[in-house]
Design goal:
The chain is an alpha+beta fold and 430 residues long. 32% of the residues lie in helices and 33% in strands. It has an 8-stranded mixed β-sheet. Strands 15, 16, 17, 18, 19, 20, 21 and 22 form an 8-stranded mixed β-sheet that branches.
């Protein structure tokens, strides 16, 4: 089950099967085109350094740089590549891919705290799409436009921290079929336990009751987000928030309206997500000691996860084959989707179907599922077994973040310690 989070900040994401108009001229061009169209980001990251100096098509190089920058959490490196693509190569990209790149650029500007530019660019795209597409197809651009314009005069967030490891207590509490991990967050002199949520893709997500209690400043309303459905929240700001000895300046908050059904099942004050985790760079979830540790210097490690809509996707191994799953610590228990059942039909053959309920922002829905008694995987450098993992059988086409396969809190709790590095984009378990 999932607390209120944003499914993703954009629906218009790039697909790099672009149908390039320019013919490949060298073996390097051909190979890079294959990698871009194949969608294996880890292979792209591995081979691009050997290919880049032999490329003859500048657009291919820019596509690779923009995709790698977005996926491996280097938005400052993606920015100039996206700018150049849109300035110099729109004809070769074609209308659909140009729109996807422009949408990526808008979200990248928001991630960089360039609010005024993000709001203006998002607004331009919204005006171009209004009337030709349903709102659900471009609400992510409206999200960026309204946040960008509301925060146009607010400085980009920044983190102040001591040059040593910061340690704060962790709480683990039973919720529904699993658990939530909580971290203490202080705002305006008041400390509350927030859900530690890698599935929250932008800002902190908080309840209306919490926002009123701690005195958050509401600066905008009608901000569209998606969970089980597209709905609207308000936007709030504070001068800072504090986690232990770390101070995060100029945070923003998405304020969810009351939802009696969801609130009764999953009462919460707030969740932290991508913005703050990107700022701290690395966190160690120490289940043995019951603490979160934030090292001053990032660890070394090879990437095994990438970002899609600011939410990590992790490469694991199941039944000897690579498999990708969303990494969503706000999900109280890991779950699998119908894509897993289609790829590994023997794993679910003969299992009895039952009803299950998943919920979050927008309500609670019932689905058909089977329960996999043991889900044995290799992830974060270790062999682990998750127990009683649900496989959703009848999700809507494309699913939502709340029903797509994801590694949740039980995955995190299966390790004595789990290092989550946004700086190097890897998981490492002990």
């Amino acid at each position: 089950m999932k607390l209120s989070t944003i499914r993703r900040a954009l629906l218009l994401l790039v697909t790099l099967a672009c149908g390039l108009h320019a013919p490949a001229q060298t073996r390097a061009d051909q190979r890079l085109g294959e990698l871009l169209n194949g969608g294996d980001l880890f292979r792209l990251r591995e081979e691009y350094p050997q290919l880049k100096d032999s490329l003859s098509i500048d657009m291919l190089d820019l596509l690779a740089r923009s995709q790698l920058g977005i996926a491996f959490n280097r938005p400052e490196e993606a920015a100039p590549a996206l700018d150049s693509l849109l300035l110099l190569h729109q004809d070769a990209l074609g209308a659909e891919s140009t729109l996807s790149m422009a949408a990526l650029r808008v979200m990248n500007l928001l991630n960089l705290g360039m609010y005024a530019q993000a709001g203006a660019a998002g607004g331009d795209l919204v005006r171009a799409l209004e009337g030709s597409l349903p709102f659900e197809s471009y609400f992510g651009l409206v999200f960026v436009e309204r946040i960008g314009k509301a925060l146009a005069d607010v400085p980009a967030p920044c983190l102040e921290r001591p040059d040593r490891t910061v340690t704060v207590p962790m709480k683990c509490e039973a919720v529904g079929r699993g658990h939530h991990l909580y971290i203490p967050v202080e705002v305006n002199g008041q400390t509350r336990d927030f859900v530690f949520d890698t599935g929250c893709s932008s800002g902190c997500f908080v309840s209306e009751h919490y926002a009123e209690e701690v005195g958050l400043r509401i600066v905008a309303d009608s901000i569209p987000v998606s969970g089980m459905a597209v709905g609207f929240v308000r936007l709030a700001v504070a001068d800072s928030l504090r986690i232990g000895e770390m101070v995060y300046r100029y945070p923003f908050f998405l304020v969810a309206p009351p939802d009696p059904e969801v609130d009764a099942a999953f009462p919460f004050d707030g969740v932290i997500g991508y913005d703050l985790l990107r700022a701290v760079g690395e966190v160690v979830v120490d289940n043995e000691a019951g603490v979160f540790r934030f090292p001053a210097q990032p660890s070394d490690g090879e990437p095994d996860m990438y970002l899609s809509g600011n939410i990590p996707r992790v490469r694991i191994e199941y039944d000897g084959e690579p498999f990708e799953m969303v990494f969503d610590t706000g999900n109280v228990k890991s779950s699998l989707d119908s894509g897993f059942a289609q790829r590994f039909p023997d794993a679910v053959a003969g299992l009895a179907r039952h009803k299950t309920r998943h919920g979050g922002f927008g309500g609670i829905e019932e689905f058909e599922a089977v329960t996999l008694p043991e889900f044995r995987i290799r992830a974060a450098g270790r062999d682990i077994t998750l127990h009683d993992t649900e496989v959703i059988c009848n999700e809507a086409e494309g699913g939502t973040l709340l029903t797509v396969g994801s590694l949740g809190a039980d995955f995190v709790r299966s390790f004595r310690r789990l290092t989550i590095s946004y700086e190097r984009m890897f998981l490492r378990g002990e």
